[in-house]
Amino acid sequence: MAAKSAGSALDWGWNHSPATSAALVAGGAYTVATAGAVTGLPASHALLVAGAGAAAQVGSDLYQRRPVSHTVSRCAAWLTAGGWTATVLTYDTALTWGAAGWWAAGTAAGMTLARSLVRAEDTARTQRTERRLQKWANKQAGEWHERLERLFRLEGHEVEGVRPWKGDVGYTVRVRMPSNTPELPADAVRKLAVDLRLPKGGGIQIMDGEVYGETLIRVTSVDVLAKVTDLPDAAEDTTVTSIYDGIPLGLKPDGEEARIVVVDDCALVVGQTGSGKTNTVNTANAGALRTDNTVVMHIDVTGAGISLPWLHSWAVDGTARVPLIDWTADTIEEAHILCDTVIAGIAARKSGHQDLLTEDDKLTVSHDLPEVLVAVDEIAELTPGLLRKLDTIVNTGRAVRVRVLICGLRATQDVITAAMKKQSRVRVGMRVSDPEELFHLFPTGGGRINPKAAPYKGCGFYSSPDEDDVVSDPTAFKGYRIKPKQIRALSVAYADRRPQLEPVFLDTEPALYYASRWGRILPRIYKTKQLAPATIPYTDLDVLYPPVDQFTGIPVTSSTEDDDSDIGPRVVAGASSAPAAVRQERPDRFGSDLLSDVLNAARTVDGGHDRASSDDATLIHADFGRVIQQAGAPEDRPSSVPQLLAEAHQHVVAAGGRMWSGDLAAAHGLEARAFGTELNRLLREVGVERPGAGTVRIGDDSKSGYLAETLAEAIRRYRDTQ
Fold first, then answer.
1. Per residue in 683-704, pLDDT tens?
2. Within 10 A of 107 (CB to CB), how many other CB atoms are there?
3. CA 314 – CA 289 distance, rounded (Å)
4. Residue 691, phi then psi, degrees to nearest 5
5. Plot region of 531 (φ>0 → left; ψ -120 to 50 → alpha; else → beta)
6. Fewer CB in a 10 Å sphere around the end CB: N or C, the chain?
7. How far is the CA of 424 from the CAs of 107, 345, 417, 474, 554, in angstroms?
């Protein structure tokens, strides 16, 4: 479903008020009288039409059960209009002042009468609805009082009200609990659902009220979550919003919209494969991009999957003037540059916008000073160094409105860091098979979650702070469905409202690489595909590539990161001539001093290996490159870094920072399986996990392999334990 244009269009609908409708009828009568006088229309025809109209009015009022007095009034108006028309036709006086005066008076009276009748009927209809609802609520309150007493033997409780939901899909029961029984038992959900005989898809949710001792029982009688609802994209659904309004994700069981707020807090989205997690992320993208005060950046090192649909209209079709996503990091190296720029931007905002913090200790978001929302997909694929930088953004960016939306398969410590989980008060858990995962994700209210309450693909639970900054209990929802075709249409609609980062944010050393970001990225993600002319302003410039740390393989975007480095940024003139993957050339071997420390696995005090005596020798037992036992004074002992790990790191650095397992084993002259088993064991010894389950992407292929950053992290940890 394509997004509809918000521009003006002709409206052929009969959208008239009662007063204008009466005026139109009067105008028609005057026209008939004028034209009929000229053409000799018999007066009986006007009486016949008026009589037919009055008869039709009686039938309509009887069908709608209107009061008799209202029916008489409307029929009298028809007959009056017909009588005036017949009189004018008889005497040919339509164009006289007397006939026009009576016509004007009748028109004014008809308009007033029509408005009064409709107002009276609306009031009566509202009163009837309220009386009906009150009668229904009183009946439900009595039944619920008896039900709670019968099922749970409650005494002293009071059902204070029953409120129906819109769409007639359920209702909420507000109960004041007795002091000796402040909560319902753990099995209350199951017992109540069985007692009510709820249909499949219905459910019970028990929540705390606004005061202690108040319990809200939400009853879902219609399965809203079973329906597939496309993201609304009519003209009224694509108007400009603010990030303060929240981001819609889908519908709750009561038909209300599920929204998350990411101004003050980070968001954590988890879900197993096939749960609809990626669709939820794209829905969140749509909500953030609909605003005019949010800059959206992406980190997805598995191929920029969450960015490509949003970039297509700009990069390929050329229908969008600017990229919807301000920056997308499709590789580990690009993610480091992005994170370094954001971290430096946070510090720059804190010092550069002090004059804007007079009324509040947090910046106020606007089009000229937008929030920066960094969406990270497949976080398990990131290296430890990147996770540390994301932790810095999460911990320091709140006051200057830089927030992170984190996506992972699970909310466990091996996937999500402690800082990310603690600072992410907005949490979304998609469909899971193990309830323990939801209990781990939601710290409060998770014990009452039943995964069967969200059984369909695209369903999940969410919690988010409300207007009073109180985190709500986890609530089930069904995410909106958003497809690539719809994303492309929305990209065109949202392109012209995209804000830009202010000069304060970009006046930092890492931001030197910001302007040429698309010159580095587009050749990688689109390869040989023809790019649209809209990309030329972003790619027709000198492309900068930062130098790379020779030991870790991490891009160096600031001179403070490596004081001894005299390597400046490498410039590639013209992005179109840049290869698909350009990296800073590295020396064949890293520093001689470090290499000497790593590789000297056995050394005597005086350096004479063949002359060492039994008294002053350092005794070493090694197993496949790892020192497992050694004796002698500390200054005589070799480096704690296993030789196999050090040499593997050397080969990976020389190969450009990433290397497949088979090639790395061949470089050592060892059998691949035995080599991989031993090297992986050395990594596990110091708690280092290979991102992406060890999959490394080189060019278009992905195989098991190693990154220089991963091996450097293990070396650092071995040296720290020395």
1. 888 888 888 778 888 877 888 8
2. 18
3. 14
4. -65, 150
5. beta
6. C
7. 64, 21, 11, 14, 27
